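F.,

This is the one I mentioned.
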């Protein structure tokens, strides 16, 4: 299964409360904080909600 590396690159100030909760659920608290998750439809949906605030990298399994 592929993994995805998610990094918060923009501030949470001034965004919608739903987007703040999504970032908290992903575990991204501070700018430049990074988390690695298994790529699944749930995580993909969360990324789409906050795509303007995060940078994503797909990590392929070899």
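My design for it:
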């Amino acid at each position: 299964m592929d993994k995805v590396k998610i990094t918060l690159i923009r501030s949470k100030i001034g965004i919608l409360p739903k987007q703040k909760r999504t970032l908290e659920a992903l575990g991204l608290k501070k700018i430049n904080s990074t988390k690695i998750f298994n790529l699944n439809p749930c995580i993909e949906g969360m990324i789409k909600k906050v795509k303007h605030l995060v940078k994503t990298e797909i990590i392929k399994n070899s």
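The beta strands are 3-8, 34-38, 54-59.

Talk soon.
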